[in-house]
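Tutorial, part two.
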Amino acid sequence: MQTIQVAKFKANFSAILEQIQNTGEKFVIEYGKQHKKVAMLVPYEDEKKERVFGQLAGKVTIPDNFDDEDEEINEMFYGKR
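Running the prediction step on this input gives:
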């Protein structure tokens, strides 16, 4: 991760974007005489991840009574009948 002043960032904007794209490096942008850290520029990652059907097959078991109703729980949701 590199730290860069705003003026240098503005002057080298295209080159910095290219470096981020090619290497995946992150940049912290500093501002002012106090070198206050104000932002971080990170590589973009596509959030779409393909879902895999059946990836837990054989690892999870569902009990036979899964769909059975429980009177106590029904009373909590619906009250006494």
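The chain has a mean pLDDT of 90. In part three we will examine how such features are distributed along the chain.
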